[in-house]
Amino acid sequence: MESSKSKSKHKKERVVILGSGWAGYAVARTLDPAKYERVVVSPRSYFVFTPLLASTSVGTLEFRTILEPVRRLPQVDFFQGWADDVDFDTKMVRVEVNTSSDMGSQTVIPPPPGQATENPSKKGDVFDLSYDKLVIACGSYSQTFGIEGVRQHAHFLRDIGDARRIRLRVLSLFELCSYPSGAGLLTDDDKRTLLHFAIVGGGPTGIEFAAELHDLIYDDLARLYPDLLRFVRIAVYDVAPKVLPMFDQALAKYAMDTFARHGIDVRTEHHLERLRPADGDLGSRHGALRIKVKELGDDEVGAGLVVWSTGLMQNPLVAKLTGKKLSAAGGTGEAGQRLATDVRTGGLVTDAYLRARTTSSEGNDSAAGAGAPPAAAGRLLEDVFVIGDCAILENDPALPKTAQVASQQAIHLAKRLNRGDVSGKPFAFRNWGTLTYLGSWKAIHQSSADELKGWVAWVIWRGAYLTKSMSVRNKILVPVYWAISWLFGRGISRF
Amino acid sequence: MESSKSKSKHKKERVVILGSGWAGYAVARTLDPAKYERVVVSPRSYFVFTPLLASTSVGTLEFRTILEPVRRLPQVDFFQGWADDVDFDTKMVRVEVNTSSDMGSQTVIPPPPGQATENPSKKGDVFDLSYDKLVIACGSYSQTFGIEGVRQHAHFLRDIGDARRIRLRVLSLFELCSYPSGAGLLTDDDKRTLLHFAIVGGGPTGIEFAAELHDLIYDDLARLYPDLLRFVRIAVYDVAPKVLPMFDQALAKYAMDTFARHGIDVRTEHHLERLRPADGDLGSRHGALRIKVKELGDDEVGAGLVVWSTGLMQNPLVAKLTGKKLSAAGGTGEAGQRLATDVRTGGLVTDAYLRARTTSSEGNDSAAGAGAPPAAAGRLLEDVFVIGDCAILENDPALPKTAQVASQQAIHLAKRLNRGDVSGKPFAFRNWGTLTYLGSWKAIHQSSADELKGWVAWVIWRGAYLTKSMSVRNKILVPVYWAISWLFGRGISRF
């Protein structure tokens, strides 16, 4: 930090931010442009307001109403690409450019090591970017637990391109089943398979998607395809004994009662073992899938769409960075150190001020996540901060990987940086509570202070989303679309 | 018609409408549901409000605000697919289903005969659909005049998928050129090539796209990529000695003066001879093109985007139908007849009441378009109507292939059908005038009654679009987006 401080007399310190999600975007937005030159590096050019992602996947909202382009932040520099590597000694980030039109917008699960087929579109040009301070906020990847076929055949719901694919698929399935039945055409059984919508994972994302899908089908598609309703089935599968584990018994029961009334199947203690295309035309031409569930034995379940909404794994960049040895000049004052990782999650360990912790190369990693006390021997990289899904706080390792945590960490860090006093106050998470939409204008909300359900929760749910994180543009557009969808129905153009 | 009339005592006559463009959609919307069962067959599930297509291609409007899903028309049945064949004797349409997610939304130019590689995704299931009356409104295809590379490398602007591709491409090109220049990276010359936007065709579509693109670049992208403006060039190429031939001298000059002030190059009397990918990485990885223009000799012009907006050709279905011999039972009362076509355009000839004309198989086709009088010998298919781009009126063969003509024919036909009196009144085209947007809130308008230019024309232009053809939903959303784009800038998320 010494050298960069002397530089700052002449020009502003450059803060390079890796990622444009809840953590990275909020840092870029909150940092004072009078004090810092801000540079964002991210494979996608916008921030996605993820709590409304499920709403766009069913057409209640238009996709762009939940996107905030990074370039719209005044005076923020942006490079679309992946941070391919970081040299902590020379304080340089190697950026691999992402020039594809919309590749960054869709969840891609890398194949397991060994089967690694290099993604040819990811072989971009590279260039180096120097930093004075670095904020690592590149998030996590989806975790498929190595279950056969999930990577290839399931839909994810983490990015805007995922939402678009799901929306097209749902509408296509109804269109496909609307043709007359008959010789060479789909049978009623085929239609029953194709209109089975399976959601794997009973956390808030899976439950909300099931709820929004139910609204789309029963509010809108029921009028357009009345003959098809008898074939429709929405089912949520989870390995745990109950869904929505973060809610207390009464609220979770309320959710399940609501789902039961809506006819949404919830199958707890069900383990998905394999996903494969259905045999014949139904699989090859119409994309039908067969789901093998441990509890159902050899009887596979047919489905037209499988949405995978469970599990996170570490970003490949994090794994790469933790393998690197640092020189003494790298800021720790001791050669042979490397970034400390949490053994259980693979996340990067930080101190209470969100600074990257190092450890000696021999491997003295924190098993903080498993309950053990963090390694005290580690030093710090004073100019490298880690926030969001890829960070593990050594003094609060059990923090969930949520938008709330990422956003609070980002704002805390940016404000401390603005004061020039990073170690003035440790980060402390304040739980604002959890909200889950259940369909038909109902939601449940739980925090330490209160719990709410029904339409009151719904009003809070929608209201809260409007005031946080969005640009004025989207603060206008989102309610406009809510009103339009309520008055005229959801957007059903298959485009 | 006799048999169907006797049926109509028991149930409504079924009108099958082929196409969901200006002609087909307006017929479906205007036909009285109390009198007719309406069935629309179209490869795409929505009507596109084409005058605003260029606005969506630059992000002023959201794509879905100019789409009207056919299924939203109450009581209209819809099958997504191509009319593959028609049996006029048994009054059946063979429908090939289109189950792709969004294939129908993009302009596809079939390869020339001989090179015909069958499109595998177009090999759908088929089923038959009977009709009492048939309305052929399947429009026209883009014409590339066999110029090498146009089909493969040019962008078209006729459907919503085309607009999306253009939008992604324009934004991607700016992003691509925003990376630092340097070794292994793009040079300034590369950036000059990539930011050359070439529009081929100086009709209203090409001119409006150039104008809207200019607005996007100078209103919005200039602020986000200030360093790139020096590389930008917009050019319009046309083979004719002047652009906008439908406007009088003064208005066309006004348009050209406006363009000159905006720095948009207009190159008249330029003949494009070939389009090919640029050599090396610039072509293979970044999609740069080389344009060969006859007047420029061997010096090819580099470009990042070529938009093709000139020329229409006949729909392949029309060619197929005109080859068919009809039996006497087919309605003409004389065996061996076939549908009459206009030799110059390949269009289907109709009488003044928009009914399909037949001719004897020996070929007595009308050369109406070339000024010759139509073949009088032909008979009529009383229950088959042809409107829009694929129709040629024998008494007014020079009608342009425009939305105005298609829309007026559709409304005329539907109203006459509603009265049960098709031959009560011949179709007469009423010219509402032509409007072309020139950028920066200016437009020109010309009709027989008046001519307007500047912002007055702009107000009329925008106002007129709001009141015609759109659902209430889009009548609200389009002005909302105009206001949002005006206040906060256009949508620039690269998605």
UniProtKB/TrEMBL annotation, chains A, B:
Segments crossing the lipid bilayer:
none
Give the source species: Lasiosphaeria miniovina
Name of the protein? Pyridine nucleotide-disulfide oxidoreductase-domain-containing protein
From the UniProt entry, list the residue stretches annotated as the region Disordered. 101-120
The record's comment on protein family reads: Belongs to the NADH dehydrogenase family.
Q: What are the residue boundaries of the FAD/NAD(P)-binding domain, all occurrences included?
A: 14-330
GO molecular function ontology, one term from the record: NADH dehydrogenase activity
Residues covered by the External alternative NADH-ubiquinone oxidoreductase-like C-terminal domain? 433-490
Report the superkingdom from the record. Answer: Eukaryota
Arranged from A to Z, the UniProt key words for this protein are:
FAD, Flavoprotein, NAD, Oxidoreductase
Q: Which Gene3D superfamilies match?
A: 3.50.50.100
SUPFAM superfamilies named in the record = FAD/NAD(P)-binding domain
| One Gene Ontology cellular component annotation held by this UniProt entry | mitochondrion
